[in-house]
Amino acid sequence: MLEALQDSWLAHTIGESQMLTASLSALHLVGFTLVMSSALVSGLRMLGVTLREVTAINVIRPATRVMLIGLSVSAVTGALLFIPRAAGAAANDIFRLKLTLLLGAILMHFTMTRRVAGWRGVGDTGAQRATGALGLALWVGVALAGCAFILLE
Amino acid sequence: MLDFLHRLEATGVGTLVRESLYGFQILVAIHVMALMLSVGMILWFDLRLLGLALGSAPVTRVYRRIIPWATTGFVVMFSSGALLFTGFASAAYQSPYFRIKVSALLLLAANAAFYHMVTERGGRSWDDDAMPPKAARLAGLVSMALWATVIICGRLMAYTMYNRPGG
């Protein structure tokens, strides 16, 4: 199936145009910068090391909106970049690691982080800091795996 | 100019960046990660200026909280960028995307200077406002557009300059 995808008209159009590939890659990075921006501000606030005058939930809420925009842009551009090299990428360990970490980071943000940030009362708790640290580690892992995938092939 | 850039490329640092086995890849990764930190954090000050986020905290307070992270990222991004430039100085100098990227960075500096020296001067009166005045909102919007330009041109440069995939 991946070979068929790779042989499609769309795959040839993207794969044979350096400018189209470069532009998609540029937009992919812009989208991912929005994602990382949200991940960083969320994680650092949960750790209690920035913007302590704003409640955690009031940082996480706008961060989640920006993250959704970033994820949409990078998912569409990422899928288009994947098509011309579908079989190779799917078999690449670093690419698989990137997608696994991405899935973990998204699940973490949309379940744990949002829930824990909404806890009222005592302010910064150990649970908030642990959630922030784990979320940050996952997102930084996604970014590093993304760099490694494109730079080491 | 090109003569100077060729000499820069021929220095030990330039050769190391260009020819070491993983030096180039590690530098690019550091450059991109530092960009994420710098631009990623600046974005939240831009969104505060636009009245789109963090409205419960004063503008100057958000700035003070954001700027140490953004500056740290910027210093690392600039240093790693300078090292990468040393390895590919003449090709970068001739790349239209590099020229647009550097112009956008200069415009970002001008935008920040104008904001701090002119717009912010009257800031005491709107520091607490969830929706800052038009001039401040414009500064945030211009910053976001210019940073997007920097990122896009950086990526286009990489694809058109080194003759190596994704490089």
Please characterize this protein's 3D structure:
The complex is a heterodimer of chains A (153) and B (167). Chain A is 82% helix and 0% strand. With 153 residues, chain A is mainly α. In chain A, α4 (56-82) packs antiparallel against α6 (93-117) and α6 (93-117) packs antiparallel against α7. Chain A has one domain (2-152). Chain A has helices spanning 2-6, 9-15, 18-46, 56-82, 86-90, 93-117, 126-152. The model of chain A has no long low-confidence stretch (mean pLDDT 93). Chain B is mostly helical and 167 residues long. Chain B has one domain. Chain B has seven helices and no strands. Chain B has helices at residues 2-10, 12-19, 23-49, 59-87, 89-94, 96-117, 134-161. The mean pLDDT of chain B is 92. The chains are: A mainly alpha (153), B mainly alpha (167). Chains A and B meet through α3, α4 and α7 of A and α3, α4 and α7 of B.
